[in-house]
Amino acid sequence: MKHLVLAACIGAFSLTTATAVMAQEPAKKTTSKKASTKKKAAAGTAAAAGAAAAVTPNGEKWQCELGNNLYIAGDMLRDEVLTVHWQGKDYKLPRQATVTGADRYYDARTGLDLVVIPSKAMLFNKNLGQRLADDCQSAAMQAGAAAPTQAGGLRAPATTPLLVTPPGGPTQVPEGAQQSAAPKQ
């Protein structure tokens, strides 16, 4: 009989203890979940801030319509690959040959396509089939200069006439050195 009373006491004690522990346990879990969620959110924010700080834009800033900006690093007159900083990431875009005279830099892997004409630059995403940025201009272009394109560097500037009298008037040729414009027969 002593064993039966002892077993009943132990059973009652363990039932009470288990109920108390189970009642406290969910509260501890939600508290720890909230704390771990806050820690993860803080760590994610810090990682995002660190990633944003790690990729600082370099190159020349080009302002686009709708408040977008892109940064172009490299010399458009001679470089075969430009680095374009767009939406917090750097992209290496190799030069592509064109028949229109526009400078085109396109990376098939990312789908980014930068087209530069003398008056503006446009950024496309060929994979999504959309224009990301339009009417992008550098500070010099906003002041009236043409884009520093390879095609533009091969042509005379539009503001300079092709036949210009040199400063100081026409060049004088000595009388004995003048040649006849008529062909010799």
Automatic annotation (TrEMBL):
Biased composition regions of type Low complexity, renumbered to the chain: 147-166
Q: Where is this region: Disordered?
A: 147-185
Give the range the annotation lists for the signal sequence. Answer: 1-23
Keywords, A to Z, come to: Signal
Per the record, the domain of life is Bacteria
Name-wise, this protein is: Hypothetical membrane associated protein
